[in-house]
Amino acid sequence: MQTSFFQISSRTVVNFGAGARTLLPNMLEGLGSKRVVLFTDRDVARSGIINQIKELFEENQGEVQIVGIFEDIDEEANSETVNRCTSFFKENTGDSLIALGGTGALDTVKAVKWMVHKDIQDISEVGRSTERWPEAQLISIPHVAVPTLTGTGAEVTAVAMINNEEIGIKSSIYNPFINPDIAILDPELTMFLSPEVTAFTGFTTLVNAIEAYFSPKANPMTDAYAQQALRMIADNLSNAVLDGSNLEAKANMQLASLMAKSAFMPIVNAIPIHNMALAFCEEFGVPQMLANAVLLPNVMESLETFYLSRIKGFAQALGIAEPSPDAKECLGQAVTFIRDLRKEVGLPETLVEFGVNVNNMTDILLSVHKEPSGVHFEIPPDAVVKITSQIFDLSVNINQ
Fold this sequence. Notes:
By secondary structure, this protein is an alpha/beta fold. It is about 50% helix and about 10% strand.
């Protein structure tokens, strides 16, 4: 029986279903919007989706209108773009926000909302910021997120991850009121995604579900989300990648992403995969989704004692037919399943193209151990060396 304290909260009202985007104008009207500024990324701008959204507002007979569209957001949010978007919102005298696109657009708009509320001019001067209630108060800027990826879950989280180019790190803004008031998940808006993007976002969803399920802070509610997300990933990711017209598979991956991130965020604790991925992102410019996919099985193998206590339930959630009663063998089955799935969806096994060599090892150890995501669980140095050697194909004496 669960008796220890935990807290679950979600401010964002989720609307899911094919065609749900048609609700957007009425929902913004309900939030009191009149002058909406829409922010999106380059991939969405090229897809033609913006025209679909504009038509919804042109057909709507209400007072709400789109007064500005910013289409130049990167795949990942960065401080320079956040500053430009904040200025764009003010120049267009906007009173509400639409975030349309992937994680970069969704996190950028959260940061814009926070900067306008706090009257901050330059996000790069902030660094990491954590505000909790009652210090954090309601931000009364209507805000709707419309994700177009089949993975990340950023549409329901109260954190924005921002690349700070000047100092080469990812900064985070946490505030319980920066997440959207409403999220609209319309799987029809994911149909333009390439197989590669679908695969990478799917593996990011898998990592979120795994780190939630194995968290020392896991509780029955997060387990319910994490386990269902794992089932849906195992059943749908390959179909979503290999058959881009499979609306049902993409819809299920969108839901799996939402559930995985909803499980992950309330119990962020020991997250070794994220820890190493973020370190490689900052140290060598490895895209985080790529690092997640490559690191996942190697981290699980190298930190087996961390995973053994819950590995059988994990294997069952993945649908492994006959999980071994021996925990170590069961872990091996799960890792093999993950590697086979990664190969099936066409993702790489290594990061050799980034040119890391053995002379970087001291810096890698420092980077992994200073990364804030590792504060609750320090990965043993020999494990860091072993995992790094494997994914960069280095010849290193791991006992040195």
